[in-house]
Amino acid sequence: MKTLIIDCGATKADWLCSDGTQLRTPGFNLSQTPREQLQGLLDAAAQKFPDVDALYLYAAGLVGEPPVDLGRWFPHASIACASDMLGAARAVCGSRPGIAAIMGTGANSCQYNGEQITAQVHCGGFILGDEGSAAVLGKTFLSDYLKGLVPEELAQEFAQTFPASYPEIVRQVYRTPAPARYLGSLAPFVVARYKTNAYAKELVDKNFRAFFERTVQQYDALPLGIVGGFGFACRDILQELAAEYGFTLSRIIASPLEGLKLYHGL
Prior knowledge:
20% strand, 266 residues, five-stranded mixed sheet
């Protein structure tokens, strides 16, 4: 039996088949990505994964049924679709109750009973929420930078590393199709200076504290699992803060596929 798992976020989509074939494509949001673009991705991917018997799609923006019929590309497969949030919960909690959080370019979370999501604090996106995400850290830093609130030495270092003129920043944030991705790309610059720059440390801690105080504390006191490249890169910081807020950090993984492989028995 040939099983295909697709884990799709805003930035990238990872495809893994039980025969060992893997693929990474640009991410897509099922409620936002134009149909033509989505069809193009599926056209290319289907050629790499012929004769699939079972397909599990975990995707951002999934509300109800997918906007395209996946059976067109995988005609012999049994198909199950779920949100990327349920995929994250299965990846880090397995069949046990817990809190699951996605911490990447964006952030999302839920409470999970071992089978399904039972409670969810709305993430709000990087404009209204997404506390704990790379995009929000980048946004906060960039706002300080534009207003002259970043320490001078760090501001100069930033200007030498990134195109940092005011027109370019405005263009990236307001005139490109993926502003969250741009903002998230700035986060590693800040995190890399966590141990050497007091301002950077305060900014990172503030972002994660908002995640615990505005989101995680609204759930029951269950083990917390985190999935996502940004969360994984900051795992030591999150481990310390989780203990401070009274939560046990059960698992941190960079990609949901690590856990979904086990969940689906690949």
